[in-house]
Amino acid sequence: MDARLSKPLELKIPRLIYHEKLKSWRYAPLDTFEEVQYCVRENIFQKGRVVMSRIIVPEKESQAYVSKLFQTIGAEKKHADVVADHLTMAEMRGQASHGLNRIPFYTQKLEHGGYKANPHMKILREDAGVALLDADDALGAVSCSHAMELCMEKASRTGCASVAVTHSNHIGFLAYYTMMAAKRNMIGIAVCNSGSSTAVWGTRERVLGTDPFSIGVPAKKHFPVILDCATSVVAQGKVSVAETENKPIPGNWAYNKNGEPTTVASEAMVGTMRPFGDYKGSGIAIVISLICAGLTGMPFDFEEENLRRISDLSAGSELAASLIAIDISKFTDAEAFKHRVDGFIDVVKSFKLAPDTEQIYMPGEIEFNKVAANRAAGGFEIGPNLYQKLKNIRDQYGMKFEMDHWKHDD
Ligand SMILES: NC(=O)c1ccc[n+]([C@@H]2O[C@H](COP(=O)([O-])OP(=O)(O)OC[C@H]3O[C@@H](n4cnc5c(N)ncnc54)[C@H](O)[C@@H]3O)[C@@H](O)[C@H]2O)c1
Question: For residues 165 and 153, what is the distance between their CA atoms, to the nearest angstrom?
Fold first, then answer.
């Protein structure tokens, strides 16, 4: 290795770094010869200054890109549009872990036959308030949007309904489905299992998935209350995003493969996620796994078949989800209920703040605020590595899609 590479530069030159608190890219001095070389190689100096850009993706263009991509691969427009809406909404909510960075995996699964662009979803068993839906390895957003529609239709007749989904595949962020229910004056509940990545309390080995849950309750003047949590400290997708952009992770998110806490995202990706709330999160993951795999007959998170099929691009992931819709109007007047939710929120928010706290947030409120902020800013920001991946995928599929104007020089 060239001895100059590790030698600190005397002349400090600005470089772009990701500013965690501001959630944006800012300039800082370049420290090493290697970094200067990198900037020269990547042509990010112009007229003596660094001109690397912020990349802002407009909401509608993200939807158009994703929809066009999945249609190019063979999906019907209605299915491509659902996936486009789902991935874009994740980004708009500030949940990059379930946004456009999922595209490379989804496209590979579709290419190799693991996911089906045009699935034949069918109901395997049914009663008035329940159904077992075989999603036939649809893209996950398609399978669970369909399942929640079915659930709500049933709940509007029976008051409460549940749909369990086999072969659901990776269903993305769960708030998507509970928000569907809240929009229709229903309480929505969604859970799903995934391949083992997370410890249960008492071991640091991978046992269960990051098996998430979401519960959504509608309000009237306020945003609906939408709790949406992985049962690991954070979703593993957040580690994956950090890995893509070469950024460190907090030391309490995950362990390396030796079971030691790590701040290196790539080590965490081959290590173990940590359950949130210790034995409580671990306990919630256990019951979610039992409900999802149990009701559908899919393998448990740690079973060989589950793990093999997630990584085998030609196989559908043997994952399952369970959804519940509760029609409020069958219990009480829905408008009065929502009015009470508003009152509840107002009271909770009026309590004295703890030190160093700016405000009390309801579950989901931060994400709704982020959507509003991103809309005002003209779109959401992505990192340069993801941008490059999306460009490569566009070119790979011969899509005509202009992306250069997503870059903005500071
Ligand atoms: N499909 C899958 O297999 C899978 C697996 C795991 C997670 N996920 C998804 O990953 C996403 C992220 O999960 P996560 O656990 O990292 O989310 P998170 O920790 O960012 O948020 C969890 C919940 O806490 C709320 N929240 C966050 N900060 C808050 C604050 N300061 N005050 C009050 N409430 C606050 C959020 O609104 C949210 O409801 C979720 O959408 C989840 O559905 C999906």
Answer: 16
Nearest to 56 by CA among 384, 389, 396: 384
Instruction: Show the beta-strand stretches assigned E in 118-174.
Output: 122-127, 130-134, 160-166
Q: Which of 228, 233, 306 to mutate to test the pocket of ligand 1 (most atoms within 8 A of CB)?
A: 228
Q: For residue 403, which of 80, 25, 56, 44 has the smallest C-alpha distance?
A: 56
Q: Is 229 in the pocket of ligand 1 (CB under 6 A)?
A: yes
Task: Encode pLDDT of 248-270 as tens digits.
Answer: 999 999 999 999 999 999 999 99
Enumerate the β-bridge partners of residue 132.
125, 164
Q: What is the pLDDT of residues 119-171, one digit of tens each?
A: 999 999 999 999 999 999 999 999 999 999 999 999 999 999 999 999 999 99
Domains contained in the chain, CATH given: 3-51 (no CATH), 62-112+379-410 (1.10.1530.10), 116-232+275-335 (3.30.1370.60)
CA 287/CA 248 separation, integer angstroms:
31
* Ligand 1 close to Cβ of residue 171 (< 6 A): yes
Q: How many CA atoms lie within 13 A of 294 on its CB side?
A: 7
β partners of residue 8: 32
